[in-house]
Amino acid sequence: MVRRPLGCWPCLSHSPPSAIPDPSVSLNTLKQNLAQLNTSYVDLVLLHKPCKTAAQNNALWKGLMMAKAENLTRAIGVSNYKVPDLEALEGDTPAVNQ
Structure pTM? Predict the structure, then answer.
């Protein structure tokens, strides 16, 4: 079990608050983290906190759904999301809201 956090989503740390990341950002970040961990998958990946907009959340969430479809993770979830944030997510229901 990996007990350390995976890397940050780089698009959000240096982009304007309204910038919408490409879904490949979260997918590629996970792939980089898997390479660093020398493993082919993890059991769970979480988005640590909601972004400023639902569009940003959905873009990153779409990337995690892509990662799950590629068997890079068994489950995807969120952390620190409130009910409106969860209701705005499109696609798969998070396995976890930590």
Answer: 0.82
